[in-house]
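Same chain as my last thread, 821 residues:
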Amino acid sequence: MTEHRGKLKFREHLEVLLAAAGSPKPAAICSASRDRLGRTSLSVQRISDWRSGKHIPTSKLFRQFLRAVDTLARQRNIILPAALADSAAWDRLLRSARAKNPAPAQEESRHITAGTVQIPIRPVTDAKPLELGVHRTSRLEGAPSLPTYVPRDVDSAVTAQLMEARENGGLVLLVGESTAGKSRCAFEAVRRELSDHWIIAPPAASELSPVLSHISLPKTGRRKWVLWLDDLDRFLLPGGLDQGMLSALLEQQVVVIATMRSEVYGNYSERTFRGMEAGVASARRLGSRVLNLIEPLVLDRQWSEAEMTRLRAHLEHPDSDGRLADAARHHGVHGIAEYLAAGPKLLEEFQTTRRQPNGHPRGAALVQAAIDLARAGISTPLHAETLLTLSTCYLTAGDASRLRAESPEQALIWATEIQFGVAGMLVATETAEAWRPFDYLVDTTASAVETADIPDEVWEAAVTHANGGSELLPVGRSAFRFGRLVLAERCFSPLAARGDHTAMHDLGFVQRERRPEHTWPSWYRTVSETGTPLQARALGALHEVESRWDGAASCYERAAAQGDILAMRLRGVIAQRRRQHEEAHEWYVHAAEGGDAVAIASFNAPGIYRPEKGLELGSATWDPDLEWDEEDDEPWRMTARTSRILSCNLEILADMAHDELDELGDQPISPNSFGIFFARLPASTWGQPRPWRRRVLRALDGLNEDITLGLSPEPRCAAEELALHFALQSASAMTCDEPDLVAEFTRGIPEQRGDYDWSTCSDLLFQDHDVLFLYDPVMQGLEHPDAPLNRHMGMGDLRPEGWFEEFGNVSPRDPTRGFVH
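reply #2:
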């Protein structure tokens, strides 16, 4: 059964409001709505029922909700759009939602005949954005054709004009550069505000008189109409939208919504008419008179900070659209909408042009050369002459017949031509006649499952282009990744000879791969032993790879004596491997005092606090040294008091982590950071962004949900394992140090044998304790699933990005669950 249109419209507005406010949690909204006595009429369940459409709130209750949402938004420095903060507009929505559903209209024709053209008409709710001119983006398997709409700053103004136009008719015009998001913004506004209307979208240059005749018919008079004119300039022609036609449409209370590119809009000013041919100027003036009647709404190409804040809020959700995440990372100087729309189109044009009968094989070869030079490590401008020379590497015998029709000059023009109003496949740089490839093409090619190798000539060109400068290092590293060790050594050697520490380190490993029997070139050993601490440490690493422990220890000590902090930790690792634990501890302390993140984190490993003998809270009923008769005992499970204290500590940690999350944001944790939760995670996680940290926070909530369901907490992934380790540490500390607080939390819960046996909990609640290896300086690198010891022990992916991959032998959590905090 189709949902009541008024209810649907209210729900859509409600979701837009919450997104614009930064997606506050229902519990936070309830808290913000409390009066001075701590009372509120809101509840999490009520808000959930509104969002699901189960109930419609009263106007009085919703105003209380609206004030709370506005308060939370302002706390985040977010100002709600005027249309979303208008209580009168919400009252109208609520009245419409509570009204009875109108009877369905009789089925009528779904098109208007204009000569030989059939103009489709349909309810706004059935309109398809791509058919209305919204630009297609890249496809994502299992996802809608378009990414989630992120509210734009201009939405409130669009909404206000649409609300006014729906009463008496009106023209709403969005102006902006190509692919700035005009059509998507207009479509979302119409779908949001005019869901009870029917939409007419005539093709370009159509006469509008048949449209006017149709909507003027008595049998269609009961309908409300939207006339969609994408690229309005195509309709500002005789027989199209002139002053008379606009007046007639407004008499019928039609809402006309249109888009127009900025540069085209500028062509309708009086200044542009000067010197123009009389006939063209006369036709343009017809359009100019229409445009002079309205104030256009401008949509900026670059997203504002407020819009980027809303985008980041969307990306915090675990099910956020990957296309938006990719655009947020790589859009560069382009707007988000530009990147989303232009990138896939440029890629499609690039991939198909070689196969077309009249395509551009030489132009495509130019672009491919630029892409491969970027993959080889070159990021500086590429001269046209270089690209033209390299293009021959990509031309096949089958291309020869078409090359006669495409000169090098034509190929360069095609490759650099601005397309879709955004950029060409080759983007201009500040250097004359020099270019760089459009980022989307490079990113897509580099991430392809089967990435083609780079031709030898291109590698040589990359080395020549680097010309002994700073780009030799990235070219050498790219060559190493592609297995071109000779080329990598050629890149690193001149830099190492000039004393580049990083190049020396990389060169040592390349030479070890190439010539294991000659790992220690005399020049390298001499420079490392007499040079900087970094050079001494680099030689120590090479000694260590060859299991030359004494040599490695000597190099690390030499570097440590000169203040190299990392060398102190590495020296401690050697001592620990030799079971010299006290010496290892001393080295780790020195490294931690110097600010080494891994050494600091090694002291944060969670453990169980143990009380002094005889002071255990459960000692009256429980002797941990007493032998049990296993045949008389049921399978182990946490006692009620143990569950209660563990649950309380999961809540306390979650609250503290939530506060830290808001304070940290995306800011990396530094060695001198102090925190209750995130700074105590392994150092490998300290640079993770806010969305990742929020998922770790949700791990605490997931474990607590197990307990509230009467179950023992069962970690489903590495993040939940570590969260449970911290909770057990915190709970054991509470039972040792705060007996009064424990008594308060457990009031009314009877004592049981096994209360507060945290050691047993640590033994039995986990499948293993592999995640704690992340705190061991000896185990650095173990987190990678390809590490030999990792493969041997079957640990899986313990890198930060793998922390949320659920174990295969446990029941998964609901993938659609939201966030409690």
